[in-house]
């Protein structure tokens, strides 16, 4: 079985701790691989739990219907002026 480190932090630690003695380096690599697998597992569980908690606290917004208005047109006598707007829209002309 070929042991390889996946995370850069552990690769840097292995190169810094390498002794040059093959059997000691092999034991060090095995130890770091085990610690790395545990670290990845804990990190995944933590991130998934945090994402679930964040998802459960999301506030669901109910959709709002648009506002339909119709008033007599100033330019045409036969066609009214029709407008479809968002409920939070404030018309500058009508507000003054």
User: How many E-type strands?
Assistant: 2
Q: What Rg is obtained from the alpha carbons, in whole angstroms? A: 33 Å
Strand % is 5-15%
Structural class: mainly alpha
Distance between the termini: 79 Å
Largest sheet: 2 strands, antiparallel
Oligomeric state as shown: single chain
**Mean pLDDT over the full residue set:** 87
- Morphology: rod-shaped
Number of helices: 3
Helical content (DSSP H or I, runs of 4+): 40-55%
pLDDT under 50 segments (min length 5)? none
Walk across the major sheet and give the strand order: 1-2
What does this entry look like structurally?
The protein is mostly helical and 96 residues long. It has a domain at 8-56. 51% of the residues lie in helices and 10% in strands. The protein has three helices and two strands; from the N terminus they run H-H-E-E-H. The chain has helices at 8-17, 22-56, 92-95, and strands at 67-71, 81-85. The chain has a two-stranded antiparallel ribbon. The longest helix has 35 residues, at 22-56. It starts with 7 loop residues before the first helix and ends with a helix. 2% of the residues are buried. The mean pLDDT is 87.
């Amino acid at each position: 079985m070929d042991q390889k480190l996946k995370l850069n932090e552990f690769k840097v630690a292995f190169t810094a701790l390498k002794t040059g003695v093959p059997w000691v380096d092999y034991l060090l690599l095995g130890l770091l691989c085990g610690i790395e697998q545990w670290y990845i597992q804990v990190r995944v569980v933590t991130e998934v739990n945090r994402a679930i908690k964040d998802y459960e606290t999301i506030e669901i917004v109910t959709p709002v219907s648009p506002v339909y208005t119709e008033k007599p047109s100033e330019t045409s006598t036969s066609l009214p002026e029709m407008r479809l707007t968002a409920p939070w829209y404030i018309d500058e002309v009508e507000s003054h």
